[in-house]
Amino acid sequence: MSDVERSYYCSHKFRYLKIDLEYNTTLNCHAAATHPVDIKWLSANPGQLFNNPRSVSERRMMLANQRNPSCEKNCWPAEDRGAISPRIYNDGVQKTHTQVITQPETIDLTIGTNCNLTCSYCCKEYSSAWRQDILDHGNYPYTEEPDRYTLNEKDKVMSKISQAESKSSRKLNILLNEIKLAAPTLQRLIITGGEPLLDNHLIETVSELNLSTAAKVQMYTGLGVNRGRFVKLVEKLKNIPNLVLFVSAESTGKNLEFNRYGNQWTEVLEKIDILKNNNINVHFSSTLSNLTLMGFVEFYKFFSAQYQIDVTFAHSPSMMSVHVLDNDTKLQIKNSLTALPDSIADQILSSMQADPAEHTVVQLKQFLLRFLKVRPDLSMNIYPESFVRWIGLDHVV
């Protein structure tokens, strides 16, 4: 599609706000580039975090159908190669707003980076375990996003700050106040991490926001907490109105243990049963990368009869996009997609079709070598032989 025919509008820029309490940053779409919060400006303009000068400028560009630079991280590159971008599968194409000043319908709150898991497509920005991995064993050799697996001075400082210290931050409380000011008209609050269930102030934070009784609460968890803590939290989670707990998973057995490293498959099943027995509404959030896609069909067949499964695609880092696979593995996956509904199968087929750039294959190999080096309990033998040979890792199986 040529730029003349192509629409560069996305309604999420007008409806959605992501706030990271630890890093004091926002995203005006979950797939966009991160923006630092100007605390001085916000202190003088309370209640206007969503209408900061940068976000207003980006909405103005969209209304003029101009290619927005903050969407170059995920959406535009995916659409350039014919894949399904977050803008498309999250229904952002339909034009909903004509004014640049608006208020968020959805606030996505990253409550903290405390996390016990190092999921394969995650990074230090969202997981303290990932940050500790790099701190203990050194940076990863990944050049496309140099800051993704490389510690900077702020990361080193963050690794030494306790939860209690973090929660007393003036900046954090200014950002929480922005949510309180938006609460009366907020339709949905999303809570992510890290692992929200590791946050000692989770229940208190949610209750103090004074959300509308109609507001839906979506909480995302990798279930990466010990059983005792989990059972105690479930008793409190039952009292949050309109709560849906989204379990982040897309594989079973050894595939899950590889891609959600730090979790055990049997423990995940036990915790899901605990949620079910306590009448907590559970959905699955499945993030499809090349590494997770190879176990997804079995996962879908295992859970889809009882649970809703929402699918998103990993476009960052680009080495983990679903098209970065060898042709034999793509054919094997294609033949297995008859077990999925057409709505999901078609998205996978569309996203797999591009040929991978050579540098993404090289970077994936380098990443996996480093990932496996400090996780000796993992093995590449869970993946198809053709993929392992193609990526050049048959010697480490």
Percentage of residues assigned to helices: 40-55%
User: What's the mean pLDDT score?
Assistant: 93
Query: What class do helices, strands and sheet pairing give?
Result: alpha/beta
Q: Can you tell me the CATH topology of the largest domain?
A: pyruvate-formate lyase- activating enzyme
What distance lies between the first and last C-alpha atoms, to the nearest angstrom?
42 Å
Describe the model.
With 397 residues, the chain is an alpha/beta fold. It folds into two domains: 12-102, no CATH class; 108-396, pyruvate-formate lyase- activating enzyme (Alpha-Beta Horseshoe), CATH 3.80.30. The protein contains 19 helices and eleven strands. It has helices at 12-15, 39-44, 53-63, 75-80, 86-89, 128-137, 153-158, 163-167, 170-182, 202-208, 227-237, 253-259, 265-277, 290-293, 296-303, 327-336, 342-352, 358-373, 385-391, and strands at 16-20, 25-27, 35-36, 106-110, 118-119, 188-192, 216-221, 243-248, 260-261, 281-288, 308-313. The strands form two sheets. The chain has a nine-stranded mixed beta sheet with strand order 3-2-1-4-6-7-8-10-11. It has a two-stranded antiparallel sheet with strand order 5-9. Helix 11 runs parallel beside helix 13 (265-277). It is globular and about 60 Å long. It starts with 11 loop residues before the first helix and ends in a 6-residue tail after the last helix. The model has no long low-confidence stretch (mean pLDDT 93).
